[in-house]
Please model this.
Amino acid sequence: MNTNILKKEDLKEVFREREKDSHKGTYGYVGIMGGCMEYTGAIKLANMSATALRAGCGVVRLIVPKSIESMIAPYLLEQTIFPIDNDEENKIKFNKENIDKALEKLKALAIGMGWGKGKDNIAILKYILEKKAIPCIIDADGLNTLSEMNLNILNRTKCKVILTPHLKEFERLSKIKIDKIKENPRQIAEEFAKKYNIILLLKGSTTIVTNGAETYLVDRGCPGMATAGSGDVLSGILVGLLGYNEANVKTIASGSYLAGVAGELAQEKYTDISMKASDTIEMIPEAIKIIRG
Model:
């Protein structure tokens, strides 16, 4: 087992300088699928899509039910919005044609933020995992949906799956109690990632990123990041990086490192009490400067 504490010098290739003749297509179209009437989180979803752009993707496509399109649109600037059909409960409806169109040209997808408990969530996630072949970050309500499914689907998927749970979400997924996980989080994380052939990012004071064979420990971050929306910011960074980087353990660990450094800078400016998740987004450019040295 190869285990490393991730250091700044390990990240240079991920945050490499760009060629003069590159364009937005060079850095990838990425998608963020989520939202519902109860949990529109319009500003949060908009912030998340802005985060993906700050992390360097070329274009971000926010995929939401039509019922909340008008609520989110005022918060978008450079981002694009792709409304798809909703059911009678105003949640995303399973429609193969809609989903196929929404995912066209995407280099990566993040799914589950503000999704709620839609009756079609399992069908949507199952369809994507069985039929699509893109890196797929599953977070928030996406993880809750996955925990209700047979996890063996992860061994059959065409996607490169990245799961980003905190301890409670990981307990639901793994069926292992939090107290037991805390006894040996790295070993349990590695065993889970290897069993299901996924990349697991287990959030904590030291974040564990592993595929079961290679593991990175990320010790960046701060108490000020313990605030609503910080997980969405991380997922936004990750999907943004996957627009132009390979979906491997180092790329995902690099995203966690970037989020941690940006959070530290935000705490320094706004204090551990007053900082909010969008302050971390504000500091991403400064964090990239630090990482680049």
In short: The chain has one domain: 2-11+22-292. The radius of gyration is 18 Å. DSSP finds twelve helices and ten strands in the chain. The chain has a mean pLDDT of 95.
